[in-house]
Amino acid sequence: MSSASRLKAPRDTNGGLRRLLRADLPVNTVALARYLLGKIIVHETANGRLSGRIVETEAYPAGDAAGHAFRGKTPRNVSLFLERGHAYVYLVYGVSMMLNVASEKAGVGAGVLLRAIEPLDGVELMASTLPRRRQADIGRGPGRLTKALKIDLSHDGLDLCSASSSLWLAVSAQPTGRIGKSVRIGLTNEAVRVLRFYERGSASISGPRKLLKE
């Protein structure tokens, strides 16, 4: 499948995308990280719809020393302990927002980091904050992903499966391509675990090329 063909957002007969239901989501962090590949993340903003096809994720299961929930619930990470399908947004290094999807039953802290998207709706608005970048680079990496989708800390805790949420997950009409996997990026704890998943062939995948092997 070409990158160009993926840039057309699938529509239903009502002119919109079908929201993912919570029942659609696996109750397992690793399974959810794989499942979300090829799905669409949508943000309805005052300036119009922004969306992108998810092509790279990382799983942070319960008990993972690299995960934010490892030491228990805190005011910062409470959204990770919500029922699967809720957003967990946090700031790293005082610069970049990260968007995660809570991935287990309520009370179990675990999540899936969304690392990269292929832009669909609102490409010009996305690119306005990342001047002179190729379209494939707009959502390449977790910090660019949130910047492109205009996601900030106000979105932490939102239910991505709710019909009333401005930030939500949708089904793609396009089948998911072959899935690759590798170790996660930039970690010291649990660094050897193969919990990063990506859609092979996407130009929007982030990270070192040496990881694109499996």
Describe the structure.
The chain has 214 residues and is mainly beta. It has one domain (5-206): 3-methyladenine DNA Glycosylase, Chain A. The chain is built from three helices and eight strands. The chain has helices at 29-35, 123-127, 142-148; strands at residues 40-45, 48-60, 87-92, 96-102, 111-119, 167-170, 179-182, 196-199. Strands 1, 2, 3, 4, 5, 6, 7 and 8 form an eight-stranded antiparallel beta sheet that branches.
Give a quick precis of the structure.
This protein is mainly β and 214 residues long. The protein has helices at 29-35, 123-127, 142-148, and strands at residues 40-45, 48-60, 87-92, 96-102, 111-119, 167-170, 179-182, 196-199. Strands 1, 2, 3, 4, 5, 6, 7 and 8 form an eight-stranded antiparallel beta sheet that branches.
Features:
214 residues, mainly beta, 3-methyladenine DNA Glycosylase, Chain A, 8-stranded antiparallel β-sheet, 3 helices, 8 strands
User: What is the strand content?
Assistant: 15-25%
CATH homologous superfamily placement? Methylpurine-DNA glycosylase (MPG)
Distance between the termini: 19 Å
Look up the CATH topology. 3-methyladenine DNA Glycosylase, Chain A
Shape: globular
Number of strands: 8
Biggest beta sheet summary: 8 strands, antiparallel
pLDDT averaged residue by residue: 90
User: Structural class, from helix and strand content?
Assistant: mainly beta
Q: Number of helical runs? A: 3
Percent of residues in helices comes to under 10%
CATH architecture: Roll
- How many domains make up the coordinates? 1
